[in-house]
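Sequence design from tokenized structure. All designs in this work follow the same two-part layout: the structure record, then the generated sequence. An example of the structure record is given first.
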């Protein structure tokens, strides 16, 4: 769609706004928001406010999504009704506020307001745009940015741009429609990224388990029974040995780190790909760490289903939650072993051995006894070369799609800001009925590994 500016503009008198469509007015939030302090309804569901979505219902039972303390006595919690504006005052600087769609209660530390003189749907859409968030940051104080506290007095002085009521409703409907289209496209692209990841994992599995001969692109001509139920048949000529006879578990520890050395924690290694994202700035660690050399293979034993497997190109130190494996047999390529350890077959096997409910771990006693099937060294090198080329092609496609997602997100943000500030005129746009927007919804991809948590 090609959107045009309004036919007439007038000077707003506000430097940051500049000219605005004729007929629009500016009100300070103190003329729109009225404090609400109703309490003593512990029977209502708990709500919270997050940056990405605004007001949400809290899932108390889900520990992964809820790390905040909930007191036994909720009588002091503030009541929220649909249409009221709720602010997490400690996180307002990053946009943690919005108009509620739910009945519920929120922490006493939140602000709750009635909204008057403006369509609440429009107000929610506009106030959460990138135009207004910086003003909430300026109205917040604190020694550290993560602990800023919103000043209600200064917040009430924020100026808000308001079109006529009918236009507010049209803008809100239009932006709901367009953002639904953009969000659906983003979900489709995220799903494609997941499919490419699954394709990469499937290819890795087929190659390192001998289901495909990379030299011909076909299955091997002959297979033999490995004698191991989970391993099944392997190509004739492949050897099967326990991992502990192929590599050594290095346990050398130190409390010192040289400036030129690499420091790795689990979060610095990307799941399944093994890419390393080293920390920036000075690294401080409280306990002893393990030493590794360039070419060693690091295998994350904490929550092994994350598949934190990598082969650093330079020496360094790592946290104790890594196993440091050093190949001792000349007949085994470290690069091949890295791919083998990252295959879903091995990761699932290791994960099945974990102990500890909250923080499951695997140990070397089990991992070292895993029987590995591998071909001759020359064939290992052919497999490594094939997987590197295939991974590079898939990763190029994934990077392109991720960039497209970024551009769509930027477009979404810019579109909302331009429409709610009157830079684009959408009054004449025919918005279809909401039930026709998304007749063929696309399933969401796998949940984010770092889910949004309530920000009490």
């Amino acid at each position: 769609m090609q959107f045009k500016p309004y036919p007439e503009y007038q000077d707003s008198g506000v430097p940051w706004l500049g000219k605005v469509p004729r007929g629009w007015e500016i009100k300070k939030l103190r003329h729109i928001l009225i404090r609400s302090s109703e309490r003593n309804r512990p029977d209502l569901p708990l709500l919270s406010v997050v940056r990405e979505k605004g007001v949400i219902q809290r899932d108390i039972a889900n520990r992964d999504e809820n790390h905040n303390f909930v007191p036994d006595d909720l009588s002091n919690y503030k009541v929220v009704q649909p249409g009221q504006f709720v602010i997490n005052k400690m996180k307002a600087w990053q946009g943690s506020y919005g108009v509620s769609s739910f009945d519920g209660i929120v922490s006493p530390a939140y602000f709750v307001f009635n909204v008057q003189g403006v369509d609440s749907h429009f107000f929610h859409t506009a106030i959460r745009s990138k135009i207004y968030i910086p003003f909430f940051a300026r109205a917040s104080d604190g020694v550290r940015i993560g602990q800023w506290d919103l000043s209600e007095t200064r917040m009430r002085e924020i100026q808000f741009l308001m079109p006529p009521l009918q236009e507010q409703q049209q803008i809100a409907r239009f932006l709901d429609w367009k953002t639904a289209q953009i969000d659906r496209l983003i979900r489709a692209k995220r799903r494609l990224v997941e499919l490419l990841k699954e394709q990469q994992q499937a290819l890795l599995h087929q190659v390192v388990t001998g289901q495909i001969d990379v030299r011909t692109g076909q299955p091997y001509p002959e297979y033999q029974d490995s004698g191991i139920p989970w391993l099944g048949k392997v190509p004739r000529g492949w050897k099967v040995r326990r991992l502990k006879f192929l590599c050594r578990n290095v346990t050398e520890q130190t409390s010192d780190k040289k400036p030129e050395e690499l420091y790795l924690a689990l979060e610095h290694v990307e799941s399944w790909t093994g890419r390393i994202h080293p920390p920036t700035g000075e690294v401080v660690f409280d306990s002893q760490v393990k030493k590794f050399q360039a070419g060693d293979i690091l295998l994350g034993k904490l929550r092994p289903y994350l598949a934190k497997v990598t082969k650093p190109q330079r020496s360094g130190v790592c946290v104790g939650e890594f196993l440091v494996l050093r190949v001792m047999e000349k007949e085994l390529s470290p690069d091949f072993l890295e791919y083998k350890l990252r295959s879903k077959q091995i990761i699932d096997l290791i994960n099945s051995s974990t102990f500890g409910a909250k923080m499951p771990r695997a140990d070397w006693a089990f991992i070292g006894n895993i029987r590995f099937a591998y071909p001759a060294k020359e064939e290992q090198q052919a497999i490594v070369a094939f997987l590197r080329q295939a991974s590079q092609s898939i990763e190029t496609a994934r990077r392109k799609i991720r960039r497209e997602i970024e551009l769509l997100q930027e477009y979404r943000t810019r579109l909302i800001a331009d429409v709610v500030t009157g830079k684009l005129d959408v009054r004449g746009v025919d918005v279809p009925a909401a039930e026709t927007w998304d007749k063929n919804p696309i399933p969401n991809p796998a949940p984010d590994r770092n889910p949004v948590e309530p920000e009490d």
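Residues 63-67, 444-456 have pLDDT under 50 and may be disordered. We note this feature because it recurs in several other targets discussed in the main text.
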